[in-house]
Amino acid sequence: MQFKHPEILYALFLLLIPIIVHLFQLRKFQKVYFTNVAFLKEATWQTRKSSQIKKWLVLLTRLFLLAALVFAFAQPFTSKTTSFKKEKETVIYLDNSFSMQTKGNQGELFKRAIQDVIANVSENENITLITNDKVFKKTSIKAIKNELLTLNYTSSVLSKQAAYLKCKSFLSNKTNTLNNVILISDFQEDNTNLNILSDSTTNINFVKLNPLNKNNIAIDSVFISKVNPDLLELKVVLKNSGVSVENLPVSLFNNDKLIAKTSLEIEQKSETIFTLPNHDVINGKITINDASLQFDNTLYFNINEASKINVLSINDADDSYLKRIYSITEFNYVSTQLNTLNYNLIDSQHLIILNELKSIPLALNAALKQFTRQGGNLVIVPSIKNNNESYNTFLTNYDLSFNEIVNSEKRITSINYAHPLYNNGVFEKQVKNFQYPKVNSFYTLASKNLSAVLQFEDEKLFLGQRQNVYLFTASINQVNSSFKISPLIVPTLYNIAKQSFKIPELYYIIGKENAFDVDTKMQQDAVLSLVKEDISMIPKQQYFNNKVVINTLEDPSVAGTYQIKNKNEIIKNVSYNYSRNESQLAYKDLSALEQVTVSNSITEVFDTIKSDTKVNALWKWFVIFALALLIIEMLILKFFK
């Protein structure tokens, strides 16, 4: 038993007063004479005996009466908690990721969870409720009920460890507070470990909601597998996390018009191919019918009118190898000698290559400096007969400079496989033994401001990158180098050009860092917007002379095909899809967790919390006891002789 006001118990010392009054009575007896002494003795003895019993009974009832009143005012109670808590803080995490679309005994797990939370939390109880994309801080169910009922699924997902830590961050550090953290989720496997630290002040409850079945088929990915002048093949990859299915319909739409349909059998993984006309603009959508998760039954993609990358090569050497790499189907390749260069061409380029110039005139120096500041990419291939003073005057724009040429044979043996030029499938695996290209002479660098792309065997740079500038340290003509006939030259120069202007891909994944370029001219203060039906947003963007670089992450948050618009002009389309990480219905095993109460029922958890924090007030019983003692005292005084 505990007391809300234990200081009142000091009043129990007042019980000494009736004890003193009863034990030290100050009243004197008066003598009365009787003729029959025998009768007198009997009467006196009987009176004194009954009087003593009555006094003790009255004393005890009064002591118990006063004690009961003191206990009543101290407000005693019983509770399962070890001490009386003045405040209670509850933080609830409600998982609204797409995997919660699966159905339980009473419908979709997420929708049912909302109903159970509303039903089991007191309307005016102060709580904090968080989802993957929203926070309702220090509020009540009554205040947020309507918002909860309209909550929807999100592609933004917190790992369960992150959700737990986020819940903990909303708890105050006050002492004498009872904290409850409740995580409500299906606890889908997310490849992160749950590390729950022991905390005596916080009760941690996990509510694991279980779906009725774990079958799900998803459209995993789409890509162009083959292209010829007239047709292209679009390969669709589907994955199944349940029992095998026969005759699954797969439909292909263009602008909501059905243009192709097929069916397939799928066990764990299956593929199908659609053949489409090349060079057609397609705002595509692929759909399947699967009763489990709905978000992965549709995949959007689009094929825009082909955009070509502008490449300008300024030559003092043969550029035939560049013409072969930068084909007319993908690039607008322009080749010119330095002495015939039209400087007006520079601003419209995406990539400029200085092909073994012996010197860099001041006019070209200034033009290229402005070009790179505006986001253009530059490749510098030096000549064997460099004018180092001219080169270094130019290279100081990028905090770079050449030393004197070194006439020594070196092999190019080190490839930075993690570099963006090579990490997109150029190599199936890291190659250790191949015919290394070599150079007969090279320039060392006076600075180390370049990230390595290709290196010599002594780890000196052959090709390095600084922001949008790529610098070779050796001439690559066939007299000085075998790099031109190496398998490395094509992916290296091809990907440099591809990265100079990032043409929108078939589709992007919401929640990942995505970047693409839009070839357009814009007025000052104009912005591009992404528009889909009633959704319109302005993405993060950076404007250069000949392009706009658009970056997206969490927005757009709704899957679909969006128009890229400059005011009312539709420039092109771009598609976004939800990540398929939630499609695999595999779940965490919570049985080994310590310091955590695991349940399958939201109602059960809240009932347990209410039971643990319930205070059974006892003061009413002590008041009743005091009244009973008062009645007993009155009866003793009236009827006991």
From TrEMBL:
Coiled coil: none
Residue spans crossing the bilayer: 6-24, 56-74, 618-640
Keyword annotations of the record: Membrane, Transmembrane, Transmembrane helix
Matching Pfam families: BatA
Annotated ranges, domain Aerotolerance regulator N-terminal: 1-76
Domain of life, per lineage: Bacteria
Name this polypeptide is given: N-terminal double-transmembrane domain-containing protein
Biological classification of the source: Bacteria, Pseudomonadati, Bacteroidota, Flavobacteriia, Flavobacteriales
